């Protein structure tokens, strides 16, 4: 376990780096965006490596300063829940951030090889995260009236279910993320960025699918997603569960 002082120090660095403007990070420093899931050296290698759970636990000490020890993220959407996410998805996203194919200046600083280690560290920390159960109390959307929930369901079934599944379970083999159980405000931000073409490593087919969504439709569909039932086997026994793994 790391000390509270270490947590606070890392968090302060994260806040410092998060003040960097999008314009600065979208300039020449960034590589040209890759096509959807075109892979890359670190992603391809990490998928094949045998993970070292003990080293993954050590790497997680850095990550947990923002994502929390339980990997549950925050309801305000600033940090996503990583617990319960497919290993393929986590490997892809971490590799993309390190390769500058996904714009995340805050996380970039703490994902570098000199901070957490080489490609083996990616495999290790992702394998460690796989051991952690999801929060039973993730952030949900504001609309609970039957009319808007039905509209959200219709949008989801027409546009999302073929990739993300009936319960938002995603598809590990196709690198489609689990969105059931993810925080509403985080999904809203990512959905909006994909719709606007701001998230450069997003699935191009998804961008085309949702780019004409109105703001009201966007809220309705993500509100519905946030209320999808998560498989109880994936959940921690209570909100008071503490990660001692």
Task: Write a concise keyword list for the protein shown above.
13 helices; Cytochrome Bc1 Complex, Chain D, domain 2; globular; 0% strand; disordered N terminus; mainly alpha; 245 residues; single chain; 2 domains
Structure description:
It is built from 13 helices and no strands. With 245 residues, the protein is an all-alpha fold. The protein folds into two domains: 4-129, Cytochrome c-like domain (Cytochrome Bc1 Complex, Chain D, domain 2), CATH 1.10.760; 146-234, Cytochrome Bc1 Complex, Chain D, domain 2 (Orthogonal Bundle). Helix 3 (41-48) packs antiparallel against helix 5, helix 9 packs across helix 13 and helix 11 (184-196) crosses helix 12. The longest helix is centred in the first third of the chain and has 15 residues, at 53-67. The relative contact order is 0.16. Mean pLDDT is 88; it is low at 1-34.
């Amino acid at each position: 376990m790391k000390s509270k002082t270490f947590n606070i120090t890392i968090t302060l660095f994260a806040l410092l780096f998060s003040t960097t403007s999008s314009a600065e990070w979208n300039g020449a420093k960034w590589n040209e965006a890759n096509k959807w899931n075109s892979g890359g050296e670190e992603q391809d290698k990490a998928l094949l490596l045998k993970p070292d759970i003990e080293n993954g636990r050590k790497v997680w000490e850095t990550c947990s300063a923002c994502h929390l020890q339980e990997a549950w993220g925050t309801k305000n959407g600033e940090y996503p829940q990583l617990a319960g996410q497919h290993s393929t998805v986590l490997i892809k996203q971490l590799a993309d951030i390190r390769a500058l194919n996904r714009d995340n200046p805050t996380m970039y600083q703490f994902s570098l090889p000199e901070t957490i280690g080489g490609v083996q560290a990616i495999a290790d920390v992702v394998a460690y995260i796989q051991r952690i159960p999801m929060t039973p109390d993730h952030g949900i959307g504001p609309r609970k009236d039957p009319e808007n929930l039905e509209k959200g369901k219709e949008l989801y079934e027409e546009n999302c279910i073929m990739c993300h599944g009936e319960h938002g379970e995603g598809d590990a083999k196709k690198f489609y993320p689990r969105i059931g159980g993810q925080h509403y405000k985080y999904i809203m931000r990512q959905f909006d960025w994909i719709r606007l073409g701001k998230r450069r490593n997003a699935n191009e087919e998804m961008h085309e699918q949702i780019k004409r969504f109105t703001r009201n439709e966007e809220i309705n569909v993500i509100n519905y997603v946030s209320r999808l039932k998560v498989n109880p086997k994936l959940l921690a026994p209570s909100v008071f569960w503490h990660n001692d793994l």
